[in-house]
Amino acid sequence: xxxxxxxxxxxxxxxxxxxxxxxxxxxxxxxxxxxxxxxxxxxxxxxxxxxxxxxxxxxxxxxxxxxxxxxxxxxxxxxxxxxxxxxxxxxxxxxxxxxxxxxxxxxxxxxxxxxxxxxxxxxxxxxxxxxxxxxxxxxxxxxxxxxxxxxxxxxxxxxxxxxxxxxxxxxxxxxxxxxxxxxxxxxxxxxxxxxxxxxxxxxxxxxxxxxxxxxxxxxxxxxxxxxxxxxxxxxxxxxxxxxxxxxxxxxxxxxxxxxxxxxxxxxxxxxxxxxxxxxxxxxxxxxxxxxxxxxxxxxxxxxxxxxxxxxxxxxxxxxxxxxxxxxxxxxxxxxxxxxxxxxxxxxxxxxxxxxxxxxxxxxxxxxxxxxxxxxxxxxxxxxxxxxxxxxxxxxxxxxxxxxxxxxxxxxxxxxxxxxxxxxxxxxxxxxxxxxxxxxxxxxxxxxxxxxxxxxxxxxxxxxxxxxxxxxxxxxxxxxxxxxxxxxxxxxxxxxxxxxxxxxxxxxxxxxxxxx
Length: 515
Known about the structure:
This protein is α+β, with helices and mostly antiparallel strands. It has eleven helices and twelve strands. It has helices at residues 2-5, 8-65, 75-85, 113-126, 171-219, 237-316, 321-349, 361-372, 398-423, 455-458, 478-488, and strands at residues 92-97, 104-106, 130-138, 143-156, 159-169, 357-360, 382-387, 393-396, 430-438, 441-448, 492-497, 503-510. Helix 2 runs antiparallel to helix 3, helix 2 runs antiparallel to helix 5 and helix 6 packs antiparallel against helix 7 (321-349). The protein is rod-shaped. The model has no long low-confidence stretch (mean pLDDT 77).
């Protein structure tokens, strides 16, 4: 029911009713007004003709009876005037002599006598017939004049002896028009019904039915199936709509095919990009592992030499029982030390898929510092920690976040070593690691006392393959990979530095919510 109420047919029907009724009512108003004007003009003509005829009647009576006849006392003349007035629409009559005598009236003269007398005085002066309208009453569609008064001069012997005036009430004219108006309204309603029926039939055949066919076809359309459109109904706008729809649907099918191909290629490119990113991260990790392994080899060599020496002493039998026991304990300690160093390196280098879990940043930083402590590059460098953040739990991959910290700390150690070589400065070799909470995040700052980063380089240090180190000493991917890892965890990383006064790398990570 609601759908039919808002249908195209209902909308056209409502608009047609409004337009037809408005047009017919407007035409009716114009026609009634024109008919009213015509009838009033006819009434004016009738009044002028009647006034001139009565003037001639009075003039002939004066000629028959002599100019000395008093008009107001001639009974026969009164009878004749009444006979003239009886069949017409003018029932009120007044005669005003030019000089002397008294005025003579016939009819009701409910009002307007003084106006009629003034009109007669005007005709005596101008010696011409005149008319005027007076009063107001409801006409047909608006207010109209209430009475019509016509005056004409009466002449005898070549001079004006007086004037007469006639008055007609226009209410009967308006009543006739109102009766006609009712009949016209009936015809308007009948014409509206006929025009609506004819118009709706033509519109249904030319517009509604083709659109309903098109709507039915589109409602039955299923994705992946060709759209079976009916033949174009005509060469008008409806036919053009059918043609445009065909073109649009064919273009949509073509665009859909192209879009599917693009989506497939983008999906493949995305997978390839992910694989490439993973390979870059693994490659950089392996590079840092190789660098750490080179340092560990030297660190492992010393305890191995100690163990071999004790074993040689035990083998030669040069030690007493308590000394053998002490030597074995020392060997065990050195072997445990070696095992711990190798275990840390293996844990760091072991490839593993990204696993998101809660990570304690402070514990991970401590573990990273402990892993890097045996490295030769970290000797004579003091690492200070200032963990000020009460909350340090983040969501991320522990292995990758450790890789970020390793890259930053190794770069800091390289910067300090570079400063030692160029400036021969051995004091104040320090890396300070601090944390703090800000607006739901944890901020990790790693500050070194190295040679710093130049103003031209600080904006590019996170670009892939950009490195300030000598050729062969860096891949240029460490900070780029770190930037990518931090970005994937929803964090941010940036650098601050003054050349010659060290650098600070800041990392912010969103805190984990809940447990």
